[in-house]
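Hi Y.,

Following your request, here is the sequence exactly as I used it, all 193 residues.
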Amino acid sequence: MVEWGIEWLGIISFLSLSEKVMKLGYRIPRAALLLIPAILIFTSHISLEGASIVFGVGVLTGAFATMLYLFFHFDEKVNTKIMMEGLADAFFGVVLFTYPTPDNQFFLIIFSAWIFYMGTLQLVTGLSSMEGTDYFWLYILAGITFLAMGFVIMNYNPTFKKSIPSLVAIILVLYSGTNLYLLLKRKKDIYVS
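Below is the corresponding structure, written out as tokens. Let me know if you'd prefer a different format.
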């Protein structure tokens, strides 16, 4: 009798955990998808053109996952920053794939604008939630870092073009790592309502 009670408690706690995971289910693959270009750059030394294609697929998939999340949770209150992030992913992904003559400089402009925008979202979240979360300092630090990296990539000297893919990979690892850390520590969405 006691064993059945323990098993039921385990099933109930698993179901409540899986409900939380399902609510955040689109965030984890999005962060993982943005790690793929970084891993490819570090392991196979793909060119910037290859990284731009994988990055474009990653942000478009992230936009699609955000759209699915919003569709399935249409009856709940949704943080506007989630919608803004999804729209930015869709916009930058579509622009990346539909531009008629993309080159490395175009990808760097798109990437720097994307990371600058994501840094702005994190900075605004940190500044607007100083009393609401214990991790406001991480939001502010990440936001400032991503804003600075957006400027660095935008104004990168062409004589150092061999190091650009590594810098892009490091930024993607920082962005995805910060999002995954906040997801795991807060156990809810990274953007504070």
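Residues 4-19 have pLDDT under 50 and may be disordered.

Thanks again,
Q.
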